[in-house]
Design a protein that fits this description.
The complex is a heterodimer of chains A (140) and B (102). With 140 residues, chain A is of the alpha+beta class. Chain A contains 5 helices and 5 strands. The longest helix of chain A is centred in the last third of the chain and has 27 residues. The two termini of chain A are 56 Å apart. With 102 residues, chain B is mainly beta. Chain B has one domain: SH3 type barrels, CATH 2.30.30. Helix content of chain B is 6%, strand content 38%. In chain B, strands 1, 2, 3, 4, 5 and 6 form a 6-stranded antiparallel β-sheet that branches. In chain B, a hairpin with a 5-residue loop joins strand 2 and strand 3. The N and C termini of chain B lie far apart (34 Å). Classes of the chains: A alpha+beta (140), B mainly beta (102). At the A-B interface, helix 1 and strand 5 of A face strand 2, strand 3 and strand 5 of B. Strand 5 of chain A pairs antiparallel with strand 5 of chain B, so a sheet runs across the interface.
């Protein structure tokens, strides 16, 4: 699971952000992007030593100033749920693509090898061009 | 052991307990749930181990899910759960780490 996907799912949830300078920001995540820039609403900012507080209606934090974020536990379940749903929506496209590729490669190689020992030319013939050529040489 | 040498990187550590040293000298122990190219980590069930040369190791429950930014990570280590259970943290004395010098 990707950290940025988790953050995206944490939108509308309360989060805590600690910056590299030690300040922490508690608020509701409005939005975040692929640079980890985060937009918070209804924020409480706490100074590094933890003894001063500020209420701020809205903040935008540049991603590279962040040390870490804390997100609610349920967010990870939400991510799993959403990825599951997404995979379920179009499983055919995904599976067909992989299946075709897998089978194509498998058939060429498999037949060539197996039939080489066992059944002779017929099998080798359908194994693909490379195999057929080699097969005939062996037979001669 | 969880680390499979065939597999490079953090993939083999996913869903195992790891120990992270951050640039500010903290030691965070948690379950790795995810990571990315920038070494941003998702840590579950986090604890911080606060070392002191005067008293034992203080295990602070940070709780919940943390996303630690890769910029702030110095070391990621695999943690042997069995071995870890045998530790008596209250008897360990160690000076706290200093922050990384850039």
């Amino acid at each position: 699971m990707l950290p940025l996907l988790l953050l995206k799912t944490a939108q509308k949830h309360p989060v805590l952000v600690e910056l590299k300078n030690g300040e922490t920001y508690n608020g509701h995540m409005v939005q975040c992007d692929s640079w980890m820039n985060v937009h918070l609403r209804e924020v409480i900012c706490t100074s590094k030593d933890g003894d001063r507080f500020w209420r701020i209606p809205e903040t935008y934090i540049r991603g590279n100033t962040i040390k870490y974020l804390r997100v609610p536990d349920e967010v990870i379940d939400k991510v799993k749920e959403e990825t599951y749903k997404r995979d379920e929506k179009r499983p055919n496209v995904f599976n067909r693509g992989r299946g075709m590729r897998g089978r194509g490669g498998g058939r060429g190689e498999g037949r060539g090898q197996m039939d080489g020992g066992g059944r002779g030319e017929g099998g080798r013939g359908s194994g693909g061009r490379g195999n057929r050529g080699r097969g005939q040489h062996q037979q001669l | 052991m969880a680390a499979d040498l065939q597999e490079a990187g953090l993939a083999s550590l996913v869903d195992t307990t790891i120990s992270v040293i951050t640039n500010d000298g903290r030691n965070i122990v948690g379950i790795l749930r995810g990571y990315d190219q920038a070494t941003n980590l998702i840590l579950d069930e986090c604890h911080e181990r606060v070392y002191s040369s005067k008293s034992g190791v203080d295990q602070v429950v940070l709780g919940g899910l943390h996303v630690v930014r890769g910029d702030n990570i110095a070391v990621v280590g695999e943690l042997d759960d069995d071995l870890d259970q045998q530790l008596n943290l209250s008897q360990i004395r160690a000076a706290p780490l200093k922050a990384v010098q850039h």
